[in-house]
Amino acid sequence: MIDINRQIEQINWHREPYGLYEPIEYTLRSGGKRLRPQLALLGSQLFGGKDEEVLPAALALEVFHNFTLLHDDVMDKAMIRRGRPTVHVRWNENTAILSGDQMMIEAYRLLSRLPDDKLPHVLRLFNEMATGICEGQQYDMEFETREDVTIDEYMRMIRLKTAVLPAYALRIGAYLAGANEVQQQTLYDYGISVGLAFQIQDDLLDVYGDPATFGKAIGGDILCGKKTFMLLTAYEKADADTRTAMMAALNNQDMPPEDKIVAVTCIYNRLCVRNDAEKVIGTFTEKALQCLNHLPDNDAATHLKNLANSLANRTL
Amino acid sequence: MIDINRQIEQINWHREPYGLYEPIEYTLRSGGKRLRPQLALLGSQLFGGKDEEVLPAALALEVFHNFTLLHDDVMDKAMIRRGRPTVHVRWNENTAILSGDQMMIEAYRLLSRLPDDKLPHVLRLFNEMATGICEGQQYDMEFETREDVTIDEYMRMIRLKTAVLPAYALRIGAYLAGANEVQQQTLYDYGISVGLAFQIQDDLLDVYGDPATFGKAIGGDILCGKKTFMLLTAYEKADADTRTAMMAALNNQDMPPEDKIVAVTCIYNRLCVRNDAEKVIGTFTEKALQCLNHLPDNDAATHLKNLANSLANRTL
User: For B117-126, what is each residue's pLDDT tens digit?
Assistant: First the structure.
């Protein structure tokens, strides 16, 4: 299997104007699991495709993903990403906006290395994916100023913001390897379920994760009042008094961050929200595994099985 | 000839999440000359192409252009665009960033409506153009904090930021109509010359333009200390005392905006910078017209001739 990390690290960003490309290099060399390009390769391998033929799309997906992180960090005013200062902190906001724009263009440039007979369809899939992610981010931002977000709305949001990317990565890989429509759709559904499980796991880790392995500061979602699966579930389960206490803590500007995180986490503990999250993660993991039953069984399939199962026990 | 304005106004943006698409509709329905899509159509008509076959690319170019204006306005903190509040003023900065991102994706989506046999090459041209524009914007921002920008550096910047878009619009139109490489390149060169003349004209109008027809506030470039052709030429021509006086006015935080504009404009008048600008505009207009001598002579050619000539006398 191609070493995606090496492929990405090898892209030469030493170009003028340096002020535009250095933040792109900084972002793309800050590590990350490279999960999405791996999924594109696995989607292809599942149907006997060659890695080299998927590589342009795999790299485009990873660059696009990192572009969304860069701009999201500006919008969310996030200070840390993968244990390092975000681009708008290390440089400034204008640099983060413009280098992000160029990153999106670089993603399309990488995509355009696909052979002419495959490029048009992949481009159309890629655009659908990209639009879904932007719509998801929009819902996510709108939720911040709303007190009446339902768990259904939340699920629609993370489906767009987080799940469509892995799903399209798999679908594009499968298409490039010659899989038929039904196979592509089944693998896409697997990707959506894995993506949803992954995001809820991420919400859980923001509260119960190990700072050393999580890469982000614990409690970040709580501090910016993000409507996560944890918060929405707690809000739904809480009695009137607990709900008031929770809102009071979340909206209290004077409360020191640490205390706020502790206060909200205590409520989560009391309401066993962690248990609910783990249950839902289990359900989506199960759905994902079922999709794989209708697809070829080979090494790639084993990887995808393991990936689904691993989500149920990411480092806590 | 297809009514580009109508085509753009007809795109339906009534989609959820409204918070993402309304700013896009607001931006695309705020008028503008639709010059770039017109150029794509003219580039095709020059070689006997059909308008309908260029339309997806023409619309993509206009949407991409408006995306760059949207994000540039955030970075430049511009308050007014085409006589209306900019998106980050009317909504907020996050909306301007995200709706801008989605606009870029919409441009690629429109482009992807091209037939499969044409799309790959046009996509690659489009990506080169998009990268050039981002690089140009980066140089433009870097110039703001530099006191040693040369006119050559300035010309390279506006070539990227302003001239490549019309040049690629023409080239893409010509390619879609079946023009050969040399013809495409000659038309591209015409576009670069016209684009450079257009930008220097724009710099001139920021000082000497008619607010009613200019759409932007007069003196905006002076107030944000933008390194324009006017300023760089004045700086080059000025003696030590004038230079000091000019810098003093530009860097004076306490000076009322109106006074600052008057002070700098007086210096421009004294140094006859307007005359220099008009000379350079004339030279590029001439270069552009010469390119047309090597290309087919028909109605489209006449339009392109008139366009080049009109630049030499845009409403002042």
Answer: 999 999 999 9
Beta bridge partners of A81: A84
Give chain B's end-to-end CA distance (angstroms, integer): 29
**Does residue B98 sit at the A interface (CB-CB below 8 Å)?**
yes
Give domain status of residue B144, yes or no: yes
Instruction: Let me know if residue A84 belongs to a domain.
Output: yes
pLDDT at A183 over 60: yes
Q: Identify the helix (H) or strand (E) that includes residue B273.
A: helix B273-293
pLDDT of A313: 66
Cβ-contact A285, A193 below 8 angstroms: yes
Domain CATH number, residue A150: 1.10.600.10
What distance separates the 2 farthest-apart alpha carbons in chain B?
Answer: 62
Average pLDDT, chain B: 95
The pTM assigned to this predicted structure is 0.93
Three-state DSSP at A115 gives: coil
- The total of structural domains in chain B comes to 1
Chain A residue with Cα closest to B92: A75
Beta-carbon separation of A109 and B102 below 8 A: no
Instruction: Count Cβ atoms below 10 Å from residue A74 Cβ, excluding itself.
Output: 22
In chain A, whose CA is at the least distance from the CA of B75?
A: A94
Instruction: Using CB atoms within 10 Å of the CB of residue B141, give its burial: 0 to 12 exposed, 13 to 18 middle, 19+ buried.
Output: buried
Residue A98 and residue B142: Cβ atoms within 8 Å? no
Indicate yes or no: CB of A17 within 8 angstroms of CB of B142.
yes
Instruction: Please tell me the predicted confidence (pLDDT) of residue B170.
Output: 98
Measured CA to CA in angstroms, residue B309 lies from A227, A228, B247, B263, B294 at distances of 57, 59, 35, 32, 17
Model ipTM? 0.93
* Tens digit of each residue's pLDDT (9 = 90 or more) over B232-281: 999 999 999 999 999 999 999 999 999 999 999 999 999 999 999 999 99
Q: How far apart are CA B71 and CA B99, in angstroms?
A: 9
Q: Which of A235, A261, A229 is nearest to A247 (CA)?
A: A235
Of residues B19, B105, B138, nearest to A17 (C-beta): B138
pLDDT tens digits, one per residue of B196-231 = 999 999 999 999 998 877 766 789 899 988 899 999
Whether residue A316 is contained in a domain is answered as no
Q: Which residues contact A166 (CB under 8 A, 6 or more apart)?
A: A35, A36, A39, A191, A194, A195, A198
Calculate the average pLDDT of chain A.
95
**Could you tell me the residue range of the domain that residue B60 belongs to?**
4-311
Residue B316 lies in a domain: no
Per residue in A95-112, pLDDT (tens digit) is 999 999 999 999 999 999
126-145 in A: which are within 8 Å (CB) of B? 127, 130-131, 134-135, 137-139, 141-142
Quick check: B174 and B196 in contact, CB under 8 A?
A: no
